[in-house]
Amino acid sequence: MSEEQHHLGTDRRQFLRRSAAAGAGVVAATSAMELLAPAFAAAKGGGVTSGDVAIVSAAQIAEALAVTTYTNIINQSPFFKRLPDDDQGYLVAARQEEMSHYALEKSVTRKPSPFTTFYYPPKMFSNAQTTLDVLVTLEDAFIAAYLVGVRDFSTPPLRVLAARIMGIESDHRTLARVLAGDVSAQDGGPIKKTTGIQGKAEEADPPNNNGYERTLKWTKISQAVTALTPFADPAAAVKAGFDTSKPYQFNPFTPVLSNPLGAFHSFAG
């Protein structure tokens, strides 16, 4: 193993430990969580599992990253203002939805995300191709991570919740690919292909190019955390070639969803 690989492995292990630490004490704090998360109360027979805590904690980091990404696309990317109104509306709504997911997960962990500073590849918010490639990459990761939750959460209500959020992340992936053809010539469009987490450029037409969601063959939530490490850990970001000179802060807010029929409501649906 090269020295660089060794250090990258160390960075990822440290990231995983910090992620796990974010959930530390949650298992013991079952009574407090029961007031906020009936699905966790349903697991009381065997107690809240450490696996449940790990999945929720990782998802919370992912949602903080998602909110930060959408916020800066809207506020900083030149191509955003030249998109059609409905494309702009998708990005605005996605930001609200990701924040709603974060708020729900925070109500379970009762702690903020342990990571609130994020890093991106160079030209992330100035080059439309880079923006869409990273956005699709992140949504690929979020989908696969929530599928781990569908597989591994300890109660049916939590597994259904993971599927409900995963469906929204799937919407976001498809709509991110819809944007490709609407990028103006001034911004390098129309963009013909996007490259997601699997590193393969795929035709943007049709944007809904999956018959089944991609699991990425992830079978444990630590694989999702490892994939997100360069976005949240500065040492890993440097090794991945990300631009650490421009850190971006997660700024939480109170979300307002566009349709009350699509709100969380409860674990009963």
* Radius of gyration of CA atoms, rounded to a whole number: 18 Å
Using the alpha-carbon principal axes, give the shape.
globular
Q: Which stretches of 5+ consecutive residues score pLDDT under 50?
A: 1-10, 19-46
- Rounded average pLDDT: 86
Number of domains: 1
- How much β-strand is present in the residues? 5-15%
Kindly describe this structure.
This protein has helices at 3-22, 30-34, 38-42, 50-76, 85-109, 128-152, 156-180, 221-232, 234-239, and strands at residues 117-120, 193-195, 201-203, 243-249. It has one domain. The longest helix has 27 residues, at 50-76. The chain has 269 residues and is mostly helical. The protein is globular. 56% of the residues lie in helices and 6% in strands. It has nine helices and four strands. The strands form two sheets. Strands 1-4 form a two-stranded antiparallel sheet. It has a two-stranded antiparallel sheet with strand order 2-3.
Topology overview:
Elements: H1 3-22, H2 30-34, H3 38-42, H4 50-76, H5 85-109, E1 117-120, H6 128-152, H7 156-180, E2 193-195, E3 201-203, H8 221-232, H9 234-239, E4 243-249
Antiparallel strand pairs: 1-4, 2-3
